[in-house]
User: Fold this.
Amino acid sequence: MDTKWLEDFVSLAETRSFSRSAQLRHVTQPAFSRRIQALEAWAGVDLVDRSIYPTRLTSAGDTFLAQAHEMLASLQVTRNLLRTHLASAVDMIDFALPHTLALAFFPHWLLELRRSFPALKTRLTALNVHDAVLRLTEGHCDLLLAYDHPSQPLQLTPERYEMLTLGQETLAPFARADADGQPVWRLPGHASARLPFLSYASGAYMARLVEHILKAAPAMAALDLVYETDMAESLKAMALEGHGLAFLPASSVKKELKARRLVRAAAPQTCEVAMEMRIYRERPEVARHVKPGAQALWEFLLRDAPR
Assistant:
């Protein structure tokens, strides 16, 4: 049994809604339903009465709910006890970041931080956006860095999580430059000459932002999907080799733009969105644990935050 199933079940008991719990647990509703079904298969009995709305638990589900609370509480106590043995990691601040921020933003940002925190110790876990958010909500990191755009807000409730803005980032289309310094591929393209498109994997955070950009573009883009991945660095590498155009965070292509190896693949200030780079943490009053180093860093960032 996966402990996530227990957390899913407790959430469903609280919300009485598969769709609401799926949203709170940062999974799609079909995936959430499959996890509840997997828990029922493990238990060997129906735990949820699906014949009525709002959803309610069966009598077996009511019995299991009390046990689920006890099991999760016991696991948390055990985890906290084990963490007391990690004396060497007390000052280590755990960060969760999407891959792009981990490569393009974090190293320079950390260099700047160390001017004020010379002994700063960090541990970084690079993931996709969904899993990075889960690292925070499940208590596996101290701080989360992520992009934010109004069209794709992260589902982190302000009652439990607080946020600071660290800066701005632009997501825009780029392509390899030809001998004259012009993009080999330029939006919007034409139906008779579709542009080879290097895309983020379907469902990825950046993929949804690219969809938002294309819908708002002044002309419909004629694109031919030729490559797909959830890694911006992989898209950049493919664009550098001339395989097509890709939407990339501007900070991740600074060197390539300066060297004229990549250029904008659209007219200036078109086909782009501005994103915020944000840092999140669990509020201390509800946090499962707060490291002194993480608290000191947050207070420093708070003093420096834009007013």
Observations:
- The chain has a mean pLDDT of 90.
- DSSP finds eleven helices and eleven strands in the chain.
- The radius of gyration is 23 Å.
